[in-house]
Amino acid sequence: RLWVDKISFRLPVMGGLIHKTAIEVFCRVFYSLYSGSGENIDVIKTAAEATGNSYFTNQIRTITIPMMLKHGKGLHESFEASEVFTKTALSRFHAGAETGMVRETALQLANYYERETTYKLKSVVDFMQLWVALIIMIVMTAITIVSSETAVIKPNSAPGISEIMPTLLIVSHPIRNILKRAYHGCRSFIAGKKDR
Questions:
Q1: What residue ranges do the domains of the chain occupy?
Q2: Which stretches does DSSP call E strand in the chain?
Q3: At what angle do helices 14-33 and 41-50 cross, to 10 degrees?
Q4: Could you give the CA distance from residue 74 to residue 56 in angstroms, rounded to a whole number?
Q5: Could you read off the pLDDT of 122-166 as tens digits, one per residue?
Q6: Other CB atoms closer than 10 Å to residue 55's CB: what's the count?
Q7: Which helix (H) or strand (E) holds 12?
Q8: Could you tell me if 8 and 15 are in contact, meaning their C-beta atoms sit under 8 angstroms apart?
Q9: Which residues lie below 8 Å from residue 175, measured CB to CB, with a gap of 6+?
């Protein structure tokens, strides 16, 4: 699960959406719980768990929190070391830490990433719908072409014809012409035998 969640951040198209959605959830929970006093380790841990991404949570637990507790590093440095935050998020947290507006910064980031991911998700859905429509159009065109080249030849009711040449399903024009000639040849042959 850890490896899968890590790879999910690097997926083409969807990877960025998954990553930024995780940051958006983290920031929103962080904003809701952050008291502004101290480093709020429990708040950071809870916010990381709320993302639902095991890689994100693991990086916060094993890198960010130990750096803050054991080495006394600040919020920005600890977040940067975890390698789960974008450059935009890191720069905003850095500015927020310097101005004492970490909580407000978290809310701004949450709103920013919510708008961005919503817009990009809509673009991805529109793109996928376009490709699905294109594939359906190609399949329908292929079916139409094959159907137009499919012919059912039913022989006229004549003595012995139904036994000699049953109903034929011909897919292509060249084969259809060859079998038509053979069919008429059979009829001529039978007619000749009857005349004798």
A1: 2-127, 151-195
A2: 151-153, 168-170
A3: 140
A4: 19
A5: 888 888 888 898 899 898 888 888 776 664 444 454 444 444 444
A6: 20
A7: none
A8: yes
A9: none
